[in-house]
Specification:
With 679 residues, this protein is an alpha/beta fold. It has 22 helices and 32 strands.
Length: 679
């Protein structure tokens, strides 16, 4: 590998591309701009297949054609596609798009770590759920490619043919769960159709609570969706029974869902740093509250993510304070690094005032395409970044883009998914609070845009205005979420030349410290064992409680665990290096065992216990017993064992009866009990 080729086409001169400028920005020896690469110049692509190992084609419309030729040539190298036409070249200011084109080409060469895949098998078992003749007809159509069972919520008006292709039952689905390939439904009123039905369908032996499994569900009942986040649930097809066109399209898609499929595992989970719970005491619930698909459930002190249900929205990843849930499609590190390459290449090619437009692939590409084909297109300084879902982008990623040279960021959301944006809005609120702390220079640089209308979409971008680029502080995004966050904040502080040391943040922000009531804290150290981030730490051999502010995620587990209610949260962002160093929250003089002299507790704790128990509790009435309170574990056990009133003393061992005892008792004319007592 190593022989790379960039194939760029101006699409029959509908774009004004300068090959020399683009090549210079990409450090290429030269770049030929084709005019008809997909037709009359197709031989250029074929030559590249023979000479190159890594080919980038600046066209997505004709990708199927190029892929077909690649298969015929048995090309074993890498083939990628990037859209420079709708994303750049097709706009009113055609001559100013070369920097943007260079940036898009550069970003397309970035190699992200691929997400792991899971294998999903479907045997084609499909449950059609609906009412009347419409449901029966759809079941018949689907039976041509699937193994179909029809469940009628209402059998009225069904007219059966002389040959029945699908089994028919009556019932209502009470609940459903699972994912593609392993759905489970619970049905009430479940009854099989009598084969002797004449006129109206007849059913017998109805039962409630019948559980059945299937690979696919085709729901045309027109009722409430059977599954949470049904739009993201592969294998679950739902449409209004009166929408014939949509039903037929879904039937085509469902008919292809047989066999073995590969699905990305969108997120990774590290239970050891999860802040959800400790010892059944609840802390963070962000992922559970925000998951729109219901893919996350409680699992003891952690959570369980069903990768079959997960649709990859990434809200859990963006809102997780510790980074226990991390996105892998792509990873946070890859997303930032690729965006940095985009911004760097744009700037190197002479581009100014870069606006990053983050959008999902389906909705975003469609509205951008319409704007380019029928409107003025994207401005030359608007750089589109495609993600699987915009909700996987959080305050860390957005802050990193501003620090890396973006003057503004626009997040384009599908209005149909407004109910899934709560997590993103929380992240934007948090980021705005942080940016405000650095000064007015960073204010109003991020916009969430939910718009169907391409014209309104264009107007929103065209009226953004210029905010000016910050001095780029590109850094390498490595380490955990918290590591990248600190690098981002340090870069923003440097870019704005701010001297701010501490930024106050809203409640539930994942940064801050804890306040301690020195009067009520007994240094029991229960908070230490509860902290998932090792922000609260003890000092072995010493009664000292320490705290590392940079590690605190404000999950509240320490507060909820403290038996004295001595702790409280204080959200805020400490930008100073000393935030990474442990500080002492409380320390006391140790209390030494009155017998061996070993330190084993704090003086205040032993004093308090002695005041409450010595001479007052039945177990500590005299001085000797009260002294047990002031002893370490070993000495306390030893003293109790040697005392005459040792609670563990079992008394003298009973004498063992022998055969001779019975003989002697008989000779004496006594019972064995009387003989032993006399003896």
């Amino acid at each position: 590998m190593g022989r790379k080729t960039h194939l760029v086409c101006n699409c029959e001169k509908t774009m004004e591309l300068d090959g020399a400028k683009i090549a210079k920005a990409l450090d290429l020896d030269g770049l030929k701009v084709h005019t008809h690469l997909c037709r009359t110049e197709l031989s250029e692509f074929e030559n590249a297949l023979a000479k190159s190992d890594d080919i980038l084609v600046a066209c997505t419309q004709e990708a199927p054609l190029f892929a077909e030729i690649t298969d015929e040539a048995e090309f074993s190298g890498k083939l990628k596609f990037v859209n420079i036409r709708e994303n750049a070249g097709w706009c009113e200011k055609k001559k100013k798009t070369n920097a943007k084109v260079a940036a898009l080409l550069a970003a397309a060469t970035y190699e992200a770590t691929p997400a792991p895949l899971k294998s999903v098998k479907s045997d084609g078992l499909c449950l059609v759920y609906g009412a009347g003749q419409a449901a029966f007809e759809m079941a018949t159509i689907l039976s041509r490619s699937l193994s179909v069972t029809l469940l009628l919520s209402d059998p009225a008006d069904v007219s059966l043919p002389t040959v029945l292709d699908v089994p028919i039952y009556r019932g209502r689905i009470k609940s459903a769960r699972g994912s593609f390939g392993r759905f489970e439904v619970n049905v009430d009123g479940y009854a099989a159709m009598l084969p002797s039905s004449r006129g109206e369908l007849q059913f017998a032996m109805a039962r409630d609570g019948v559980v059945s499994n299937c690979s696919l569900i085709f729901d045309m009942s027109g009722e409430t969706p059977l599954l949470t986040g049904h739009e993201k649930r592969d294998g679950y097809f739902r449409a209004d029974p009166d929408d014939r066109a949509k039903l037929m399209l879904l039937a085509i898609d469902a008919g292809e869902m047989v066999g073995e499929f590969e699905k990305p595992i969108y997120v990774k989970y590290s239970a050891d740093i999860c802040a959800h719970s400790r010892s059944q005491i609840t802390g963070c619930t962000n992922c559970l509250d925000l998951c729109p698909a219901g893919a996350i459930t409680e699992d003891g002190d952690g959570v369980l993510i069903d990768t079959g249900i997960c649709g990859g929205c990434g809200s859990c990843h963006a809102s997780c304070p510790t980074g226990a849930v991390s996105y892998a499609y792509p990873s946070r590190n890859d997303f930032i690094a690729r965006s940095q390459l985009l911004l760097k290449s744009y700037s190197k090619a002479g581009g100014k005032d870069a606006v990053i437009l983050i959008h999902d692939e389906k909705f975003g590409n469609e509205i951008i395409s319409i704007a380019a084909r029928f409107g003025s297109g994207l401005l030359p300084n608007v750089l589109p970044v495609v993600v699987h879902a915009i909700t996987n982008v959080g305050h860390v990623e957005l802050g990193a883009l501003l620090a890396s040279g973006a003057s503004q960021i626009v997040l384009l959301a599908d209005p149909a998914k407004n109910d899934e944006l709560d997590g993103l809005k929380n992240e934007l609120e948090l980021l705005q609070a942080i940016l405000k702390g650095f000064g007015d220079e960073l204010s109003d640089r991020i916009k969430l845009l939910a718009e169907y209308d391409p014209e309104k979409f264009e107007n929103a971008l065209n009226t953004l205005g210029k905010r000016g680029k910050l001095p780029s502080q590109t850094f390498t995004p490595t380490g955990s979420k918290r590591d990248i966050a600190r690098s981002t904040f340090a870069a923003l502080r440097k870019a704005t030349r701010s001297k701010v040391e501490y930024i106050e943040l809203p409640e539930k922000a994942p940064y801050g410290s804890i306040e301690i009531n020195l009067e009520t804290c007994t240094l029991c150290m229960s908070c230490v064992s509860a902290c998932p981030a090792e922000a609260v730490i003890d000092t072995p051999g010493e009664p000292r409680l320490r705290f590392i502010e940079s590690a605190c995620v404000q999950c509240g587990l320490c507060v909820n665990t403290c038996p004295e209610n001595a702790l409280s949260l204080s959200p805020g962002l400490n930008l100073m290096p000393d935030a990474m160093q442990p500080v002492t929250l409380k320390e006391e003089e140790p209390f030494c065992c009155v017998k061996c002299g070993e330190a084993f507790a704090t003086k205040s704790t032993i004093t308090r216990i002695s005041e409450q128990l010595a001479g007052k509790h039945s177990m500590f009435q005299d001085e000797a017993r009260s002294q047990l309170i002031k002893m370490c574990d070993n000495c306390r056990v030893e003293s109790q064992a040697n005392s005459k009133d040792d609670p563990f003393t079992l008394g003298e061992r009973p004498k063992v009866r022998t055969t001779q005892d019975y003989i002697d008792a008989e000779d004496a004319g006594l019972s064995i009990e009387d003989f032993l007592i006399k003896d």
